[in-house]
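We read letters as residues; the fold follows as tokens. A sample entry reads:
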Amino acid sequence: MTFPPLKNDLLLRAARGEETERAPVWVMRQAGRYLPEFRKVRESHEFFEVCRTPELATEVTIQPIRRYSGLLDAAIIFSDILVIPQAMGMEVEMKPGPYFPDPLNTPADIAKLTKDVDVNKELGYVFEAITMTRNALKGEVPLIGFCGAPWTLFAYMVEGGGSKTFQKAKTWLFQYPQESEKLLMRIADVCVDFLVGQVKAGAQLLQVFDSWAGELAPHHFQQFSFPTLQHISSGVRQKLASEGIPAVPMTLFAKGANHALSQLAEQGGYDVLGIDWCIEPSEARRLVGDKVALQGNMDPNVLYGGKDAIEREVKRMSESFRGTKPPKGWIANLGHGITPAVDPEDLRWFFQCVHKYTAK
């Protein structure tokens, strides 16, 4: 498959730990509800319909690139982490948050899941959207593919939606640890196949979102999440190598698991670690050394603080990530996804400030 040549490779160079003329920047959920053009598409199309229709997924993926041309350094395919539970045979609705009408209540319910998931059959629409988007981008910026991490997906599958306490999911971990570990690895296997398929379709960087990593005690993170994250990074690289496909950089965002940064840098197998706003970037860099690149980490709510606050925080973030040196191995981002009520012009200002304060 041949694609238009890439004109802006800042993201890929930073992900490989290289020095860059400025920090590349993108934001999680950049194709989303804060954009009026996205809301217009959603007026006539249900959420998962957009995910499953390559033309619509391409359009909404490109909307922020179109709006912020010359300011944004990456596109991320419009999809959802919960397409994996769907591929495993579970029903998921958006109301407006995720809702599973028939969650996994006991380990006996695991029998309801699809045994051997054929990602090409179940998730081929994501691959089609990636190929279509990669062509439509005309090489302006690289395209990121992604999936949810097994613990985060497991939590949704057992809880039946989002949760404040994770009581059901954690009851499983503590009451049925072996069954939980087995199911987590089964989810990890689907993640590997899904990510490999995304690279084949044209994804140039992969990100794994462990949104609920911070809900686990450090030793439970070690037991239940870390092995699956390692399994994904090594599995993706091995499968690509066995098919003679060049590896792409991989990012892990284990939100709230800052306690595990040094271990993830040494043994996780990822090129980039995303960090949230609850750790000082200079401290994160001290913990990981130069083993990995870092991504993050402004609090998304700063975007509601007005231009002065945004500029002040970007300047501070830049100084903490890079000190007085040129940016090296740093991808500027938020510490979590952008939220729906942000004014698109305030996000534009965030991008402009990153350009201003991270240039050599």
Summary: The radius of gyration is 19 Å.
